[in-house]
Amino acid sequence: MTGVxxxxxxxxxxxALWETRIKKSKDELKTEREQRDRRAxxxxxxxxxxxxxxAKLKEKVVTEEGRVILRIEKEEWKTLxxxxxxxxxxxxxxxxxxxxxxxxxxxxxxxxxxVLNLSRNSVTEIPKEIGKLTRLRELxxxxxxxxxxxxxxxCCENLEKLxxxxxxxxxxxxxxxxxxxxxxxxxxxxNKFTTIPDCVVNLPSLEWLDMGSNxxxxxxxxxxxxxKLHTLWLPRNELEYLPDNxxxxxxxxxxxxxxxxxxxxxxxxxxMSNLRFVNFRDNPLTxxxxxxxxxxxxxxEDREMFGREFMHFYIQEARKRGSQTFTLVLNVTxxxxxxxxxxx
Length: 344
Known about the structure:
eleven-stranded mixed beta sheet, 30% helix, 12% strand, single chain
């Protein structure tokens, strides 16, 4: 009986061990199969996700006036997916308020791009690949966080309009931007510039410049080199004087200088016949000058000339008062000399 018992126990142990091994083997096979399936699904997921993303992007593409435009507004797109490269025929990006943090380096693939409008996002960097976009006409990056402009932007030879307003820490531009021979519109307002960069003065086609709300302390003495400039916005800066050569800007018709620290108006500006609108409000000018009240029958156009009329009136009054001061000083000097002679 004892031998039988041992035999049965041994058989049961072997059976249990065998069943355990079989179960373990099945579990291992199951685990391996699941891992293999997950890897296979992973390989499929990438392309499928790209397809889904691409389909979503295609829904944002419209054609207006013969131009293919990607338009996304008020959606969350912090980054742009690589799948976008498959839509390289797009000619215009209109991406507003989407939280975009970075311009992808594959931007260079969009050789047909004419307009790149990424205003009101969180872009911190302009990639050097931007220089590959030789057909680009408009680059709009206002209200972002750009602090540096790459020299490669100077290679965008067809660029006509550049807006970099409100980028907080932006305070300089590369000299290579003077190569933008077709640039006529430049907005650098609400940044930290202390002077107008040399490359801006050297832009041959510049017509419109806004550098309001910066930290400008002076204007370049050769500012008159901007021969085609007709509109110059400089409000809310730290300007204390204007160079005489500003009077040689014959194309200038709009000049805004409100809220600066100007103490005087150059007399030579009196000869700027093309200047149609000028604003000197909120400056600590030396003389307190008030224009005569406008008549009720004066035309509205005349009222718009108020700034220009003020400038002319101020220059005349400054000249008159300066002459009176000189005469007074001269009389005092002569009287002093006479009294000295009498005492001798």
